[in-house]
Write a structure and sequence with these properties.
The structure holds 2 protein chains of 2 kinds.
Chain A (H helix, E strand, L loop, with lengths): L2 H18 L20 H17 L8 H19 L4 E5 L6 E3 L4 E5 H6 L3 H16 L2 H26 L4 H34 L6 H14 L4 H5 L13 H14 L8 H8 L3 H9 L4 H12 L5 H15 L4 H12 L8 H12 L3 H14 L6 H15 L1
Parallel strand pairs in A: 1-3
Antiparallel strand pairs in A: 2-3
Chain B lengths: L2 E2 L5 H20 L5 E6 L12 E5 L2 E7 L5 E3 L1 H20 L4 E5 L6 H22 L20 H6 L4 E12 L1 H12 L8 E11 L5 E9 L8 H11 L4 H9 L1
Parallel strand pairs in B: 3-6, 3-7, 4-7
Antiparallel strand pairs in B: 2-9, 4-5, 7-8, 8-9
Helix pairs in contact in B: 1-3, 2-6
């Protein structure tokens, strides 16, 4: 046997061993209260996610407000039904981006940036339905097996090209394999969209809300200050893990048009549950300094007609910090508008005082500062404001 | 593995990659036979005389199946077996001492303690990197003064103790495909295809200050297997060889 033949024999026999290890991604949906067998790859995935969940639980990023957590868990249980309800643990994570995720062990994260943008409970329900579909269909397990199989394919490809004497072709192999993995991801997302739609509509939620949240997101991103963000809307490549948003919207709208009954949007319960957090979540969103998106979002929230004091105040804050031409006037206008609503935060009057003082309206400034001190007698900047009040009083006399 | 609605989480993955690289390089750097390197604190800390209370913190173990392609897959059953074997071996070795050894298991509710176990993992990796893997820190040239900090006092709130003993262990075991490939490629003149291995580090920590008074790392080749009681016992024997609590007794006798 020549050295080359021997090498080929070795490589071929290794290839046979690798091929024998190919694992099926065709798995049955997980049943309610089902747990993986300890000797399986799935149990390994669960073990790792159990570990990360322990850390997540004690993380400062997790919202620990009991009422909000109870609300989100209740919506989740309505979507997934009583059987699967105990299998899911929903965590509200303080992150100002639109996202949610699902781990194979039943740990679901809903980010506050998503709760801020969903208009009503139905929209939240579709997101939960989508994530639950990943769990029920065991998408993480399927994906893990796909990764393993593709890693084997990649290895076989490299070994094959090495035997054939074209090592450069190995690079091509890696690209086509990566594209296959991302394509696999997109297919799972489509499946999750469809099943999620089914779960949420069966739970009685309005079907048209599924597409509505995506449509809103597209329009928000179109208003971004950053071209990089605006470009992401239409961008799709063979390396995208998720389908293009326009395709998702089309599919979800098609599904909604087939629905005979109109469901429930549960807007008022949603506003009631999330309302107390609007100010905090908007504050976190503003940290990104994407004023175009941020102001568009506030305008969208204003359309719901609730929490107007907070929302006008937050829009005033955005204008004040943006500091473009005319923003100071816009900010003052918004603060004044906010001050006409009962839920305006005390800081509204401090900001009115500040802007009026700078525009040389001492009488209005004085009045606003006094209101601020009345509304926030324990404010940390109390002494500073009192000194302004004194100075303004002296000016007036 | 997370499936999310819009994009994947990158930060988390990066952190995992960094950590595993430090630790895996141990497998490669240290030879295939069993090796250890023991470190003692240079701090002004002496092990007290007499019988001491030592908390044996539930070991942090993760055992994986190394696939032909090089992907390591965590195995829940091996991890449990390994963890049980290591704990039993530690108990056996320590039972020979005069000290009061108390096993401390980490239920999910012990959030702070779980974080301290993670901290031990991070500090241990830092020690490995800067003390054993050729990236020395100029500020720690002649000192070994690593500490988990006084936060460890939380352990003595539920169980009074003088010292805490932490163990971190990882292992990966090659599939037949991986072994065949390593042999095949070695024949073809390509070396360096890892076939797995086991490594562990242990720390003895002062409950009052959090100072690591003793630290040791051990690495074993495929011969000793912590999934089996004998394998775990030999790893523990090696790692605890110079542990002060046991050493002291030898001197006395």
């Amino acid at each position: 046997m020549s050295k080359k033949t021997f090498l080929k024999t070795v490589i071929v026999s290794v290839a046979v061993l690798i091929l024998a290890a190919c694992e099926t991604t065709n798995v049955d949906p997980i049943a309610a209260s089902e747990r993986p067998e300890e000797t399986t790859d799935e149990a390994g995935l669960w073990l790792q996610m159990d570990e990360t969940e322990k850390l997540l639980k004690s993380s400062a990023l997790v919202e620990n407000d009991d009422a909000l957590n109870a609300y989100v868990q209740t919506v989740a249980c309505r979507v997934v039904g009583p059987d699967y309800c105990p299998d899911l643990r929903v965590y509200v994570v303080k992150q100002p981006f639109f996202n949610a995720n699902m781990a194979p062990n039943g740990q679901m994260q809903i980010w506050t940036g998503l709760l801020l943008r969903a208009e009503n409970e139905a929209q939240l329900a579709f997101v939960i339905g989508h994530e639950f579909a990943h769990y029920r269909q065991r998408h993480s397990l399927q994906q893990w097996r796909e990764i393993k199989n593709l890693a084997n394919a990649s290895l076989l490809f490299s070994m094959g090209t090495a035997v054939a004497g074209v090592p450069e072709a190995a690079v091509l192999g890696d690209f086509s394999i990566a594209a296959r993995l991302y394509g696999f991801g997109r297919d799972k997302e489509r499946e999750a969209d469809e099943l999620g739609f089914e779960f949420a509509t069966q739970a009685g939620y309005a079907g048209e809300e599924a597409a509505a949240i995506w449509k809103y997101l597209v329009s928000e991103v179109e208003n971004s200050d950053l071209e990089r963000n605006r470009r992401t809307i239409a961008r799709a490549s063979i390396f995208s893990t998720h389908p293009v948003t326009s395709e998702r919207i089309e599919n979800l709208e098609a599904l909604a048009s087939e629905e005979a009954e109109t469901g429930d949007t549960a807007t008022s319960t949603y506003i009631e549950a999330t309302g107390p957090f609007l100010a905090t979540w908007l504050d976190a969103d503003l940290v990104q300094s994407d004023f175009g998106k941020h102001i568009f979002l506030i305008n969208h929230l204003l359309e719901r007609g609730a929490r107007q004091g907070v929302l006008y105040f937050r829009r005033g804050e955005a204008y004040r910090l943006r500091r473009e031409d005319g923003d100071e006037a816009r900010a003052l206008e918004d603060y004044i508008k906010a001050s006409t609503f009962a839920d305006a935060p005390a800081a509204t009057w401090r900001e009115i005082g500040e802007l009026q003082r700078r525009s040389d309206n001492p009488a209005q400034a004085l009045e606003a500062y006094r209101t601020y001190l009345e509304k926030a007698p324990e404010a940390s900047d109390k002494l500073l404001i009192e000194s302004y009040v004194e100075a303004l009083q002296e000016e007036q006399t | 593995m997370l499936a999310c609605i819009v994009t994947r989480l990158h930060a988390m993955h990066l952190a995992t990659v960094k950590k595993s690289t430090v630790f895996l390089s141990l497998f490669i750097l240290l030879a295939a036979c069993t090796t250890t390197r023991s470190m003692q604190t240079t701090n002004d800390a002496t092990i007290d005389d007499g019988a001491l209370k030592v908390l044996l913190v539930e070991p942090d173990v993760r055992l994986s199946f190394l696939k032909a392609s090089g992907i390591a897959e965590v195995r829940a059953d091996w991890t449990r077996q390994g963890s049980e074997n290591l704990l039993a071996s530690m108990q056996e070795v320590l039972a020979a001492s005069d000290h009061d050894i108390i096993s401390y298991s980490l239920s999910d509710a012990k959030e702070r303690e779980i974080q301290l176990v993670r901290l031990h993992e991070s500090v241990g990796e830092t020690i490995l990197l800067h003390r054993f893997l050729g990236v020395p820190l100029p500020t720690k040239e002649n000192t070994f003064d690593w500490s988990l900090g006084p936060g460890v006092q939380i352990f003595s709130e539920t169980q009074e103790a003088d010292y805490l003993l932490f163990l971190f262990a990882r292992g990966s075991y090659a599939s037949s495909g991986r072994q065949a490939m390593a042999i095949g490629l070695a024949v073809a003149g390509v070396g360096g295809v890892g076939t797995g291995g086991q490594a562990a580090y242990a720390s003895l920590v002062d409950t009052r200050t959090g100072d690591i008074v003793w630290f040791n790392v051990a690495q074993t080749g495929p011969g000793t297997d912590m999934r089996k009681p004998e394998g775990a016992a030999s790893l523990i024997d090696v790692i605890f060889k110079e542990m002060p609590l046991l050493h002291e007794k030898e001197n006395a006798s």
